[in-house]
């Protein structure tokens, strides 16, 4: 049977995530992967979670093994509210301002389903987290791609594009700006306070929402924390957080924090998607947070990640420092470094050779919507060992040199 003619427009336009595809080959013997932003499993509190899991299944089975409310478990919400207040200085959040989702990916999908239509506009970074684009694309909106600078989204260009919408009489169709302001994925850069305030001013001037995705905010290794956009302007900000990077991704827990009016609509949409987030994983996370200060306990993990980041930066300097036109970001936290080659380099073309040399990365073109740039790659330093990082960068240099030499000879 020809199933193609039965597919919806969403199915026809959907593309496989290159990161998901990478994970299939990342486990091959001898492969060194700088691909997915996969936390080091040795950092997961598996003993404590195992003890709590056994206890809540036996003693709280009427909750943990049953359907739960679509809004999420209040035990988890209240525990997370305390964490937000203590470690992020965010106050005034109540359970009515929170929706527990199946990871941040579902949160992004719910935002797209709730706010976007085919005639809608939204603004994203250039480059941008590919999971957000995949979620938003299902509603077929028009994307405004805003270039990234060393300190995050260029808000002056954003303002120019918004003025163009005003002049065309389409500003009412502009719904939101999506940003990862702290340790952006894929570039690793952070938006300073002044630029965050400028973005908020634009939100008031042009009447739009800010979707602040903050999966990496707790993974700061150095430098001073910057207040979240939500803490500065809660009425216009939808804050997304996840337990995947601070606890473990297998729980598949994300949280949307927003005004109660917005949350109610997100909840209604979620009911049509999956009814509720699993009760078992929510209560497991709740009981863990009630008895452990997870942010304090992250300190050894952050020291580990910082040392791996420094190892990668040192290796990049050693291997690529004398190659003209090659540069990279130097993040103060998060999981990623953004490596840029001269404009004529295509990291997709280079990718097959990299696989043969047993080193993986995410080609940069995966992080663009319309105006594709092919001369970048995203490198994640959190999972490989120090020796694997050094060896992987050596292999990457060999691959890049062979590619660039072959291209030069052919031109």
From TrEMBL:
<dbReference type="InterPro" id="IPR050859">
    <property type="entry name" value="Class-I_PLP-dep_aminotransf"/>
</dbReference>
<comment type="subunit">
    <text>Homodimer.</text>
</comment>
<dbReference type="InterPro" id="IPR004839">
    <property type="entry name" value="Aminotransferase_I/II_large"/>
</dbReference>
<dbReference type="GO" id="GO:0008483">
    <property type="term" value="F:transaminase activity"/>
</dbReference>
<protein>
    <submittedName>
        <fullName>Aspartate aminotransferase</fullName>
    </submittedName>
</protein>
<dbReference type="InterPro" id="IPR015422">
    <property type="entry name" value="PyrdxlP-dep_Trfase_small"/>
</dbReference>
<feature type="domain" description="Aminotransferase class I/classII large">
    <location>
        <begin position="59"/>
        <end position="396"/>
    </location>
</feature>
<keyword id="KW-0663">Pyridoxal phosphate</keyword>
<keyword id="KW-0032">Aminotransferase</keyword>
<comment type="similarity">
    <text>Belongs to the class-I pyridoxal-phosphate-dependent aminotransferase family.</text>
</comment>
<keyword id="KW-0808">Transferase</keyword>
<dbReference type="GO" id="GO:1901605">
    <property type="term" value="P:alpha-amino acid metabolic process"/>
</dbReference>
<dbReference type="Pfam" id="PF00155">
    <property type="entry name" value="Aminotran_1_2"/>
</dbReference>
<dbReference type="InterPro" id="IPR015424">
    <property type="entry name" value="PyrdxlP-dep_Trfase"/>
</dbReference>
<dbReference type="GO" id="GO:0030170">
    <property type="term" value="F:pyridoxal phosphate binding"/>
</dbReference>
<dbReference type="InterPro" id="IPR015421">
    <property type="entry name" value="PyrdxlP-dep_Trfase_major"/>
</dbReference>
């Amino acid at each position: 049977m020809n199933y193609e003619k039965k597919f919806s427009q969403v199915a026809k336009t959907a593309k496989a995530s290159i990161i998901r595809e990478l994970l299939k080959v990342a486990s091959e013997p001898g492969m060194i992967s700088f691909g997915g932003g996969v936390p080091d499993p040795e950092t997961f509190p598996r003993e404590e979670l195992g003890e709590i899991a056994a206890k809540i299944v036996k003693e709280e089975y009427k909750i943990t093994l049953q359907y739960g409310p679509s809004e999420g478990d209040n035990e988890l919400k209240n525990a997370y509210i305390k964490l937000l207040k203590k470690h992020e200085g965010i106050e005034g959040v109540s359970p009515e301002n929170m929706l527990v989702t199946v990871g941040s990916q579902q949160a992004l999908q719910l935002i797209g389903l709730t706010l976007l239509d085919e005639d809608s506009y939204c603004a994203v970074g250039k480059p941008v987290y590919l999971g957000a684009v995949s979620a938003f694309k299902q509603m077929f909106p028009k994307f405004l791609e805003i270039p990234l600078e060393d300190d995050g989204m260029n808000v002056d260009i954003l303002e120019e594009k918004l003025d163009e919408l005003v002049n065309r009489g389409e500003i009412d169709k502009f719904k939101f700006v999506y940003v990862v302001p702290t340790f952006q994925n894929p570039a690793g850069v952070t938006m300073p306070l002044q630029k965050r305030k400028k973005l908020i001013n634009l939100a008031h001037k042009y009447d739009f929402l800010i979707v602040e995705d903050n999966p990496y905010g707790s993974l700061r290794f150095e430098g001073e924390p910057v207040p979240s956009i939500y803490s500065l302007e809660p009425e216009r900000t939808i804050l997304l957080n996840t337990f995947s990077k601070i606890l473990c991704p297998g729980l598949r827990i994300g949280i949307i924090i927003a005004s109660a009016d917005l949350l109610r609509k997100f909840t209604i949409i979620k009911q049509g998607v999956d009814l509720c987030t699993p009760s078992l994983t929510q209560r497991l996370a709740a009981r863990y947070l009630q008895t452990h200060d997870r942010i304090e306990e992250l300190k050894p993990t952050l020291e580990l990640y910082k040392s791996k980041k420094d190892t990668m930066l040192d290796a990049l300097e050693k291997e690529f420092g004398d190659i003209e036109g090659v540069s990279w970001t130097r993040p103060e936290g998060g999981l990623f470094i953004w490596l840029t080659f001269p404009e004529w380099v295509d990291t997709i073309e280079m990718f097959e050779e990299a696989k043969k040399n047993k080193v993986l990365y995410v080609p940069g073109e995966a992080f663009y919507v319309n105006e594709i740039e092919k001369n970048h790659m995203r490198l994640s330093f959190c999972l490989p060992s120090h020796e694997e990082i050094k060896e992987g960068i050596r292999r990457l240099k060999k691959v890049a040199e062979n590619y660039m030499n072959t291209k030069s000879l052919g031109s």
